[in-house]
Amino acid sequence: MTKAEIISNFIAFLALGISIYGLYREKKNHEFDLFFELYKDFLILRLPTARDKVRITASGRITGINEFINELNSLRKKSIYFKYTDFQFFEELRKKLWDLEDYLTMIEEPCTGEVRENFDREVNMRLSNIYRCLLKKF
User: Fold this and answer.
1) CB 75 within 8 A of CB 67
2) Taking the CB of residue 54, how many other CB atoms lie within 10 A of it?
3) For residue 128, is pLDDT > 90?
4) CA-closest candidate to residue 127, choices 106, 105, 92, 97
5) Could you give the CA distance from residue 126 to residue 104 in angstroms, rounded to a whole number?
6) 3-class SS at 63?
7) Which 8-state DSSP code applies to residue 60?
8) 78-114 pLDDT, tens per residue?
């Protein structure tokens, strides 16, 4: 093989590599756009707003849970796409959503003592786990 053929082959392989990388980046950008479209409102507005409405009253009743759980259910429904494209991510997210929902629905009212003291910390920790799962995806 001559130097010209070697250089030509090298340039061809380099062009092929650049093309493959470009396709990979385009796919990643498309996935990010889809991810951003699906979750932007949840991450920035809907979940924080619903979380802020969850409170323990002076009598120990928890208010705002239903709206918060509805938002968590909506987030899970929006994530169905990933059940078919990234099942591992979908399962991890679903488990974290269920963990928070279970905590909210299983807590006994009236909330007193240690449960009352730890309530906000527990809810925030579980919500942070959901955020980390989502943000880890991209």
Assistant:
1) no
2) 19
3) yes
4) 97
5) 10
6) strand
7) S
8) 999 999 989 999 999 999 999 999 999 998 888 888 8
